[in-house]
Give the backbone structure.
Amino acid sequence: MYFMGVVLFSLFFLISCSASGEVPKERNTTCEVFHYRKGVAEKVLRSEDMIAYEVENIFFGADDTYRLIVSDALLATIKKGEAVEVVYTKTRILKSAFLRREIEISRLIVPLESKFASSHATVFYGNPDYGEFNVLVNKKDFPAIGRIKELLK
């Protein structure tokens, strides 16, 4: 019984940062999560797998987009507020139901305040950098912002 528990515990950590409802083509087992507040990045050392799960679910559940050029200045503004970023050590292929295609990504960032988090959840994606129009909006799962903030406490 003890051995079974150890195997299940190890398996859970093997798939951390990949615990989403969608199954990527290739499993990535490593990611880092950063919490931005007032322009300062802090590496998240607790609950990073659950935060990555919430961020990915915002991506998977997106039902709209912005026609927005994702510039370095925009990203700097987002990071000067409050945001969470998931950076994968190996690129992943995630399926966007809204865009009806698979997207290769290496990072996702979700603003936790500002107009991008006022009544909906917004996720910016990049590989390796964030690019023009690489933004999805999830109008149905705004509570994910609150769940992420709770996990960051």
